[in-house]
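re: ur question from yesterday

yeah so i grabbed the chain u mentioned. its 356 aa long if i counted rite. heres the sequnce exactly as i have it in my notes:
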Amino acid sequence: MLLFKCLQLRNGIQSFAEEKRLLKPRNSRTPSVETCQSPHRIVSNEGGRGKCPECDKGFEFVKNLYQHVREVHHWDEGKVIRLKASSRRSKSNSENELPCEECGQLFTTKRRLITRKQKIHKIDAEIGASSVVLFADYSIVTGQLQNWSDFEDWKRAKELATLSHFVIRSSHETPKGRSIVHVCQHARGTGKDVDILALRRRYRMPRRINTHCSAFLNVLHLTDGSVHYNGCFGNVGHIVSTATLPLSPDDENVVVNMLKSGLTPSIILTRIRKDRWDPLLEYSKQPRICLISLKEIKYIAQKRGLVEGRYHKNDLFSLEELLKTSTDIFDYVYRKTSHPTGDGFVLVILTKSGKK
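ran it thru and got these structure tokens back, copy pasting raw so excuse formatting
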């Protein structure tokens, strides 16, 4: 009997505390929405953003509104999520809206608009040109060449002209010769299905939205040495740019010579872009060597056994190579030293501009 009375007393105290909590605001110092003047807070109940749809109570912060409907009105998470979406829409309507010219979707910041253009519509925000439809020639090309060397030269020139890069997907022997199937480097694997919700998530947009690229090249290397080919060089579903192409052997040799002359990767990158960049061409059509990165330069130095920034551990050897290969030097006088550390050498340089 005593236990039963104790339970009744405890339940009565809990119910009284609950009623008192519901009658009293959670934060007594929270000012009304109409009196809040901070530009970072809700100052109006128009659109229902800071106002409870059940009891018309105003809140200074939206997070307090969500907590209020959960605890007081016992809303489930589904209704809270819908309230959050409505709150975001009311906020976007009150701010400056930037429409996307391609799909008409509205954005509140310029950065989000640029991100959508680059990742969804594949459009460069600076030049306004789509990088997907640069080469929309989807005609089938067929032909025959005398030997494999001629075919390699033709394929390399065609890849540079169309900004495509083929990789071997399969190769097998046939009674007539070896059959080789080339596909675009962005078409390997199963791809990814288009998901609108996933595409709208910032920083989570897939680089390839199509399951396959239309570029291909079928090759039959006959036993007599001749080569038959047929293929298509039109790309779809991914960004088409010279930056995605591999570096040619000639461009790699240019980087190697600059490394041998004693230049650092950062200086090499600056000089290449200064001397070879064409301001009349778009970014995606610039020469491949202009879009080289520091990581690629360091990889070339490691692959060729070169120390970054110099050709030899002896700095004087690097200096001599620089004097021989530099195009900015008109004439120079260089006197070596017999000191083992290299101290005491004399060097006088006369540049083409007349500076000494």
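noticed a couple things. The chain has ten helices and nine strands. also Residues 141-244 form one domain.
anyway ttyl
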